[in-house]
Queue: 4 jobs
Job 1
Amino acid sequence: MTPLLELRGLTRSYGSLTAVDGVDLTIPRGERHALIGPNGAGKSTLFATVAGTLRASGGSVLLSGQDITSLPEADRARRGMVRTYQHSSLFLDCSVLDNVALAVQRVHRVAHRFDRAARRFRHTEAEARRHLDSAGLSGRTGDKVSALSHGERRQLEVAMVLATEPSLVMFDEPTAGMSAAETERFVALMERLPEDLTVLIVEHDLDVVFRLADRVTVLHLGRVLASGPPAAIRTDEAVQRAYLGSARTEDLFAEAEAGIEAEAEAEAGTEAEAGTEAGTGGPR
Amino acid sequence: MRAETEKEKEQEKEQEQEKDTVTVHGGTPAPPDPAPVVEAPDSAATAGADRPHRRRAAVVVAVVALLTAAPLVLSPYPVSAMTRMLAFAVLVIGVDLLTGVTGLPSLGQAAYFGVGAYTAVLVGVHITPDAMVQALAGLVMGLVAAAVTGWVAVRARGIVFLMLTLAIGESVHQVADTWSAVGGSNGLAGMPPVTLFGGPALLAAGFVYWWVLVVAALVFAAVALVVRSPYGRTLRGIRDNEARMRALGYRPALARYGVFCLAGAVAGVGGALWAQQARFFSPGDMGFEVAALALLSVVIGGAGSLWGPCLGAALVLFVRDNLSASIGGHGPLVLGAVFVAVVFLMPRGLAGLTGGRLRELAGARRRKENSS
């Protein structure tokens, strides 16, 4: 069976800097695939290149075996590949219902009809309400999006994305900036997603990643460091070194413990990589 | 005299809305009744949606009745001034469709207004005095002109779009000013009075007014339908977040081009109506000033609402044509002051004074009902 999404040597460079460097990745239908990696690993660039927001400098993206590398974002969305944004990207001055209905009416091919009022397209309206129901927003259909909380906006994004009837949904750090309760609600929502839906998720919160993902790919300096089931990734030594337990996370804090720093210095290879990585962080 | 009716109209509307507000307040103590407790949020919502609907219908009937009755009580001069306002309001509706609904502020609509007007005069002089044929010809030519020039403009957004439409407007104005076939800077005169259904010429100002009123109401209804339709939703989506539209699989450029043509057609009808009333058209009626006043009407009335900009159009023309003479030609000063006042005091324009606040109240009430 052809995998739903396949990346072959996908490369994206900014000038002389290669943010994504020859990434090969295969995601079968129905898989929950998580993409993790330290800051500056190229996750967001890879994500945007797959979604079509950025153009690839090399390699190819295949959706259900078809090469879509040269297609613009809108055409990829029409083929069932949709993304969410790191910061909620919604139609703030429209009602909650309108937001989801915009997705539904495109799928139903009535987006350019003006012979009847929108609410007379009963099929479209009912479908939009159903999606809002399943995202837990049925009480707020008439409200403007600008009146929603951060967590509710995230729920609305999920409803909107599912309303396009996608085969692949790509979430870009969906739980960023959420409270613990909001994250919990969001993960529950993700767990309820239909079985046959393929999900690619970029996420910083490793608890969320290990709960949701069937398979995890670790990106480091634009390359795939490891790819496998969560349990294997947790114990993978290279990953440990590059990401999970080494100096990388502690680097974020100014007052890192001296002992750990010494340990990190002992690992010369990692240290050399860290130098390049500081450069990779720039364009993100 | 005419100003009074205008004021009456507004007062009428305000009174209607006041009544509505009262109903909203009056409805609030209702929840203690046994019914709402059992009521599902769904049925509460439909009941809430039904009431504003009836309310709106009452307002529409009252306004239409008042507008229809105007020639019966007013003398010809104010009636012809109101005719001009209606024709201008049609242009403004088109500008609002672009600016308020789609988020494309345009300064080029006067060009299509002019194209429609010249078409109507030429049809009137050379072909037929039939008002319907002229209006249709104006519509078609406005549409064609917008279709020919629009594809350049819709590639841009924001300020660049504004500048491109300004360039289109000025170019067309320049052509009208120099082209002898349309009378150059002297304009086109000698248009015979219009007829309807092959009947006698509509010489009385009242009859022309009624004809213009009917067409303006039709245009208003048509644009209102577009705004409520799925296409209107698409346009609002483009206004709010075009990148997201693309991510949902839309091709926004196509929808933008469509609405530009639509707005051109609406402006063409407005121009035809204007010409039929004045029976004369010159480049001065389609210059930058007209385009700017149309945009100003939208801002004053409240972009995105439809009746607000129509009121704005009436106000702007009233100040320019009527009030200006009695205050020593300082009309533009008054308009400027009104503009500044609107921007600072009511960012949603005239429409925000009533509709918005009303909706807020209704929304708050609905939420309260749902949570209880």
Job 2
Amino acid sequence: MVSGKKMSINQEVIEISVKDLNLWYDENHALIDIEIEIPKNRITALIGPSGCGKTTFIRCLDRMNDLIPGTVTKGEILVNGGDITRRDVDVVSLRKKIGMVFQKPNPFPSSIFENIAYGPRIHGENNKERLTEIVEESLKRAALWDEVKDRLNLSALSLSGGQQQRLCIARTLAVEPDIILFDEPCSALDPISTSKIEDLMVELRKRYTIVIVTHNMQQAARVSDYTAFFLNGELIEFDETRKLFKTPREKSTEDYITGRFG
Amino acid sequence: MTRKQYHNQLRKLKEDTITMGNIAKDNVLGATISLKDHDPELAKKVIEAGSDIDELYAQIEDTCFALLALQQPMARDLRMIGAILKINIDVERIGDIAFEIAKITIATLEENHIKPLVDIPRMAEICSEMLASSMEAFENSDDRLARKIAKRDNEVDALFDQVRRELITYMIEDPKTIKNASHLTFVARYLERCGDHITNICESIVYMATGERTDLN
């Protein structure tokens, strides 16, 4: 077992540094002594069987667990040197810097344009021209612009599932985050939409730090630079993806990725 | 065990690889004995068993590709399939070597060997022992055993040099020996290559067990 020790690799610039993180849902000790350093401009995948703590962990990174009563968090999560677990952190500006894309696409029931413009507007951007630029730029970065540029005023709900998911990514990009968290972003999508999102993530890592929770091990192997394996609330192994999937150090990692349990 | 079907296929693939290795091992030794004893029946058996090897070769390769395409194997399973794809080729080549030696047996039935064969059968014995042990190392993912086996290729190489020098001496002394001596030179060379293929197999086993690429030559 390597958990409890700091896990950092290579000479990467660290974007998120997690120190001795523990989390309880009432009596349930869901995250145990997590120590991990997530590198900047890289895709880090979190894998593990259901209930292993990977989603709980990613939700710690933008304080989403605050919404669940009975949750107690201890430890530090340093982003740009600041501890984001502190009570006095403004979660609204935190979530501007750390965006999240969810399992099922969840566009607002409004136009494509409004979906993207909403974020910048509530963060104070009211200049119509500037908003138009942001919408175009965000849709381009999310590889959706060419498909929707002639119908920005149509309802976002008229888009296909894969397009809706890219719209949600564009919506996240519109508020200029540093970090994007993806929680099972492709599990509700068909294979073609899935490969579009995967290609997009690889493109986005040039500008953003990406953390993705996935049940699809092949997806983790395909898109990520680093992979963290969680089991029963502990971080078992964290390594370069190609190493972890070819020659894992821990037997439980090996057993999980070769389908011997889970 | 959550992927029963998949793990059954992997197990079968491993068994087939070992079966094929053992057939090749018997064939190399059988072919060389058939040559030594001028035994056409044994040579024919080796030639027939060659088609079993070809069938297994195709079957193993197909299974590897199917598993790669359909099951997306990871970690030790992936390394094993990668190793098997390479081992499969080496074993098939060893099968070809046995086949060629058996053909020489048939071609030289009417010839008396220029001397009783001792070193050439010894080369075949060492190869057959190496191949048998390498199948054991493969079965148990035993990289230490694989490294040990590969060292024995030096014995095969030394015998090859000795046999070749001896045959050249015969040919210089008496040109009438050239026909038989050149057949025997070919056989010795085939067996020397056989040792190299087994060394390759050992390298694949080390990769399979550890993920490390190594040159055991």
Job 3
Amino acid sequence: MEETGKTAFVGDGDSITVFKAAGVAAFAAENESKAKEILRKIAKEYRVIFLTEELARALGGFLKRFDEDTYPVILSVPSKNGSTGYGTELLKSAMERALGVDILFNGN
Amino acid sequence: MARLNVNPTRMELKKLKARQQTAKRGHKLLKDKSDEMIRQFSVLIKENKRLRDEVERELSEVLRQFAIARSVTAPYSAEAAFAVPSVAVSAKCGVKSIMGVEVPDIELITSKRSEGLPYAYAEMTSEADFSVAKAAELLPKMVKLAEVEKAVRLLADEIERNKRRVNALEYIMLPQLEETIKYIKDKLDENERAAIVRLMKVKSKG
């Protein structure tokens, strides 16, 4: 099964513009409820969705429903304010769930 | 450990023995699967970490630079300048299988509509040019990260499920079967002994 999907970027106004120029569909969402609404709308159409970390953190519970399926792929990326470490946290929790031990960060 | 609620007959014993065989084979298979999944997982997670570090560093850089570039342009003209992208990005989304877990397999396709940047040079500063080019460069890496991270998450779920299955077999199913088989065997032996003793008694009286 192979098909062509679209990519989207959801984030605050400043972070998305540059990706618009790079050819990714960009959606502005100032707060979490707006982001939730947008995600609901675009989750079917877009295959790869980038979401800024601030929003991803706030929507943690909501994003869980996308975890089970192969698509859409939702990736949290840092916004212009820099990384908050949310992505690393997710990585760590997945690792601890699967292996029970920390093989990357050595406890830091 | 509780034993199963069955009649101590030869029939049951035979059935249970067959079940035990199957359970043992299943357990071994699942355990092997778990080992292999964990091996794959540790490879993936290392790649994930490396990619994430790279993407986070570069993306923050790009966004910061872009924010600076924007701040020196009027917001209206900046919006207009970026409204029409010169490139269209789409992704070929396939599915590949890692140990029976379906994970995404994404390939980025960039189709250029025109050469160069989507706006006139007079409209924006060169910092903006630079950050847009950088962002476009970064995209394949971001998509790759999305793919790997999803795979890691799906694989983690599957490993967890599999672990539970292995444990259920190892610590509940197998001991239960073993104990029941032993119980039936004891019972049958006991019956046999009782029969022999009865025969001997009858014989000694006659």
Job 4
Amino acid sequence: MLMEVGVVLSGALALVLFLLFWSTYKEYSDIRRYRQNISTSANWSVWQEKDFESWRNQLPCMEGREVSLFVVLGSGGHTAEMIQILQAFGRHGLDSFCVHGKVTYIVASSDPHSMVRARCLHEKNGVLASYSYQFLVIPRSRYVGQSYFSSIFSTSYSLVVSWWKIIVGTEAPDILLCNGPGTCVPIVLITFVRNVVHRLLQKRRTRIVFIESVARVHSLSLSGRILYPLAHRFLVQWPELRDKYPRVEYIGLCL
Amino acid sequence: MSEELRFGRVFVTVGSTQFDQLIFAVHQQSFLETLHSLGVQELRIQYGKGRFFPLEEDGGKLKVESFRYKPSIVEDINWADLVISHGGAGSILESLRAKKKLIIVVNEKLMHNHQMELAEAMVRNGYAFLASTDSLVETLKNADFRELKPLPEPNVFPVVTVLLQEVSFTE
């Protein structure tokens, strides 16, 4: 009897593991194929306002649909770039299209300045005033000058808290938008794992959009290199990077 | 240096870095005299983490003021006609977006830092001039600032389109 239960349990475990493995592989290869197709077809250097307008007018109406965005605010320069991108999105993307929605900002606990800047977007005259917003505060994984040994613990602590806050605390958003420093790596990994599970459960999956900083001209940042295989869209602002990496989209200077 | 292009105000910034060689260089009498000969009346210096150098004389005929940090230097960039920057991404983009003439001074200590990538790209494309702390005076005297090209206007439509495509994406 006991042995039969054992056989059934280990069989079930093997099946779950196999499904997860298969789903991970599918997710990864879908992203790869999607990016391959897009980077060969997209030519953003000639994409101007009038192209955008006529493209947007053909989009199906999404009235009543709540758009949900996750935005990782790095710090300093990364936050500044992200705020500008959100302003552009609010100014040009919102009229008559995804008008309602919510933005969840993921910020490091040591970074109140980013929260102030994000709040400004949602004030009465801000470009995202019609969107509600919330903050997910993540403990910082490594302080400047912290030793590597102790940063192992603080990084795992940060990972566990992020995991808890994102998986348990939130629904899967439509988009995870990130541009940045190390903070966004665990967030993307967690989102990728959630996508793998949601693929099996047939639930909504998150699209991951990574925008490399304007300051990177010749080579991707470390977080960029780590997240290169995991993002659905990978945008760069310098032609040198397009020539070097096959599955990026070159969008020119956007700020 | 052309007759018609004259600078009234110059802003020197080192961001949040320590770059005492630059701060020292802009306190030299030869630098101040060169500025004066170019028509500069006011000089503002943001010296960041570095040491504060009290000005020995009164800066000749220039009005000089220094400060360590401000929450935002956008105001100072808008105030200036010429910006002399340490090459940080923020100050480069803000200066060029505000259509100011820009000289980037390389900090040799950070030479191979990726922070310099953007500075090099801007110089290579002819949007800014490059100088070292030693050649700053020379650059000011000889550079023809009319040669500098304006940075192309940013195009936000690709990134907005990508976001909308992903929002409306259904499999």
